[in-house]
Design brief:
- By secondary structure, this protein is an alpha/beta fold.
- The chain is built from five helices and four strands, in the order βαβαβααβα.
- It has a four-stranded parallel beta sheet with strand order 2-1-3-4, with helices on both faces.
- The chain is globular.
- The N and C termini lie far apart (38 Å).
Amino acid sequence: MKMYLISDNIDTLTGMRLAGIEGEVVHGRKEVTEALEKVMDDPDLGILLVTEKLCDEAPELVNDIKLNRHTPLLVEIPDRHGTGRDPEFITNYIDEAIGVKL
């Protein structure tokens, strides 16, 4: 099984290539959709890394992959600018999920 990255910037791709992970840089909804559809046909792909910004470009396709495909495992990663999430998102998630205030 192999890993693959779909990124919105060259810096994230360069860092992943140093770790031995191949990938590509895309921009915009159309390119994201094409890249996702292309890699979904690879039977050797085990983990697909996609930057959070690109996941926001095609949320319905990303959710469909996460919910209806066994492989590859799609993982949203922050890019070099950090995560687009609220700094307290984990705490808020726990608060909402189990009702315990941390």
